[in-house]
Amino acid sequence: MIIKNELLAGVAVALAMFILLCLEFIFGLHDRYIDYYIYIENIIYIIPVIGLYLAIKKRYYSQPPGEFQIKDGLMSGVIVSVTAAFLNLPLQLLFLKYINPDYFGNMIAVSAKKAITSGGNSILAIQEAQNYYNRTDFLIQGFMTFLILGLFISMMVSFRLVKKGIIQTKKQVK
Description:
Elements: H1 2-26, H2 34-40, H3 46-62, H4 70-99, H5 103-117, H6 122-132, H7 135-173
Helix pairs in contact: 1-3, 1-4, 3-4, 3-7, 4-7, 5-6
């Protein structure tokens, strides 16, 4: 039952990330207002934090008081993160192929523009951007980000819940 909740949380996180990516495109953050994209792109990480927190918290409350351990939270977070990471791959491919096929071209153009305005070498900036903004690297980055971020967030949430459980157990003993 618990694993079902974590799988559902992983699906929800992947779908929410995809929807947010589509909304970025709809509102022009991938073309017209691309200069503002840098400031907004990190907001997207709130979604996995919320999804992981809710899944781990559900596991915490499903166990008897004082029984929750850090490994339980990590296991929960890994299930959510792996599920979201694997579902994210086809969703990103769908986005890059059908919804916004110009994504990489726009990002490369912005890199060249930044190099020109800062007095840098635009040719070198374009080459570096072409190496950075390609489909394979983009998908690998997205996959690894989900896994690493998920593990990190799971550890933080688990430590907090274990500490909360220890404090509540001590209060009950007194």
